[in-house]
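A favour, since you know our structure tokens better than I do. Just paste the record in under my message, thanks.
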Amino acid sequence: LFVVLFPIIAGDGINLQKIHPLESDLYEALVNLYISAGYALPSTTAPYSTDELALMLSRLERDSLSQQGKYLYDQLSEELSVKPKVFRLGAEVNLEGYLHTNKEYFTTPDDWIYSYNERQPLLSFTLEASPKRNFYLYTAIPFAPVRYGTADNINGYRTTLYGENYFTTTLFFLHPFVNGDNGISYIDVGVPVRAFGAVGGDGWNILVGREKLSWGAGKSGNLMVGDHLHYHNVGRLSTYSKNFKYTLLAIFFALAREYYKGGGDRYPYGGYFNHLVGQTAKSSGLNMFLAHRLEWRLFKGKVNLALSESIMYQSEEGTLDLRILSPTTIFHNYYIRSNANSMIAIELDITLLKGLNIYGQVVIDEFQAPGFEPTAGVKGALPNGFGYLAGIQGNYPVLRGFLFGSLEWVMTDPYLYLRDDGPIKEGLYQQLPGEYGINYVVALRHYIPDGVTYHEDFLGYKHGGDAIVINGQLGYREYNKWHTTLNLFYMLHGTKDKWTLWAAEDLTNGTTLEKTPTTSHTSTENNYDKDAHLRDSVEKTFVAGINGGYTILKGLDVFAQADFIYIVNPNNRSVNNDRYDFQLTLGVGYRL
């Protein structure tokens, strides 16, 4: 399989099916090596097994690399060659402090840059099993707080750990619970969040369990599968060779009826969204994201092309039509609109010069085919759902590491990721108040002391539709030693959100004529915000942040991050005053 014999493949006892998490520095190091050597990015379908990372490294000729590249190549080779124990119990201790300046408006996890997904648990115990080189098992049990302390349909979510006080720490049990009780009530027993099994061989891998995923090279997010969810309940098959990779992916989510009220009167808070669900509530139905992805390396490794197609498949009865599982079909052509919503994505990255790479993504959720369907402004026309991402990134070897930078632009249509539930109502495709759509808005179930709650996110780009984003980075990294990154982020976000009701054109709502970013939410209603019709402006968000880390000795790291956030027209209301916050995180961690 490999062009160059690679020592870790020949080595006895190496578990080639170990899955390396998205946060691993291994992949970022390989990206730096590829761009520096003048090659397109390695596969952008993460995470990866040791076998696949070894294949990526074997494509590079060590002697052609810069001095810094050779140093990094040797480090990666050594790390990928580590022989695992048959059974390993690990532990991690983290102490972090979080300071900010605005405890009036920045009081939820969504208000923080270094937030719920980024914060490290005070303690974490990991179990790894490598009974054979073709099998790998992993689970991590964190001692960490819940996302929310309480949730109800009168006040919504609440927690005291994300800004109600100026300063908090990972010692969450020292901070009073929302009702004044001892903070130990915050402990999250809905764990683990990273737990899976993997099996595979030379050039293939099957992964089943809970793991974070990412499809694409985006810095601010990706358009089909983003890395911002806390975890994915996943089943994945990957097979790969020197110049081709195929992935079949299934991700499972709760069907929205588990946390939607349906029609009738709204809750006092949160519209039709039920914030508090009993632990005895029955979980039923099927909500599955199913996708296949093909990647090609072209023109002697200078170009990487990826084509992905997906459906969001729902069944209220919980039944699954086995035809849907075909790994080579065209999902769109099943024409089962009341069960599924399809999407296609095209991604391309090119490295024309050593040290300089350009990349882009386009997703199509809905479009008007001239001659086949009504076009914009015509009754019955469907609003377009496109997303675009384009970026440039580069690096330059300096000292014993790499100076790197990137600039990225993203634009998403107002109704991207949204849709109705299938049947025609009142002569048109439309989503009525209280109805959940067959869309790309998904929810994860979270434990809270009073029961369980659900948190919804876009599966693709984390900022959803109706957004224009510009993101820039500049940084330096010496692998396994120290790193720092400056990040600038600016977003224009229109009035549409994940709860905006979707509707075809009726000559009054004008849904097919709206352009990003929108300044009105009167065309359709909103399932969450009963006052969405008062939105009258574009929300503008600017974030300037810097972070860095240093490895004092193997296993002992220190970390810091500072972010300044400034928001104009918060919540898309021009009557709201500008809001800003300064957030500082300091941390130290030790891994055994």
The radius of gyration is 24 Å. The CA atoms of residues 190 and 376 lie 46 Å apart. The chain has one domain: 7-591.
